[in-house]
Amino acid sequence: MGMAASASAADLSPTEPASGSGLDQERFDQRFEPERNWSLIIGGGARYKPEYEGSEDFEISPIPFVQFTYGDWLEINPGGATVTALQRNGFSLAGKVGYESGRDAGDHDRLRGLGDIDLAATVGVRAAYEWGPVELYAEVDQTIGGSESLIGTFGVGYSAPVTEKLILGAKAEAIVANDKHMEAYFGIDSEQSAASGLPEYETKAGLKRVNISASAAYLLTDNWLVRGQAGLGILTGDAADSPIVQEKLQPSVSLGIGYKF
Fold it and tell me: Which domain of life is it from (predicted)?
């Protein structure tokens, strides 16, 4: 149901960036009202995840959720809006607007003295190719202000119905980031080192994370549905070696329920 959107934006992430709602919208539309060209899902749930990207401590956070789709060209969810400009022979090209949630130095003791990373808007493009239940995709997102991040996401996803009510999915993706993103979230300059007590650390652009996840959506009735997702993020390269990072493995679990109008 798109609970990750809140990766992440930078972390559902955000840093667990968001790359789709996680629901097979076309199949749900066909089941409920195939003659209608829009859908609206409202719901909520909770997510168990690291307190910040690289943390060894976890928190439970509520997830309000609204997803609106119109035809097969517009989707609006908590992560932002996606407009599909081109669809042909399984290939699609879309533009996106969203946000990067940033990071608060007060979120964890490990972050004290490192300063805040401001909330900022993002713009991006997404290219995808669908081959039956398999989707190959690539995304590029630029943060306007804040960390001034440029992030690329490359992945493969699978979604297919097991029964009329149950849909299973799986996804694997790699995330690369520019030097500004790496410096903002994982680097430590001289002033930050003096304020935090952590050693200075310089980062470079490159692969920062690999994500794998599995999800299940179940139709309780013609309108109510429940969705769960379990994922594991693996920090790599300069991100994994940063003094800010306490744990390279970043698991998360989410569960939510929604009502489809």
Answer: Bacteria
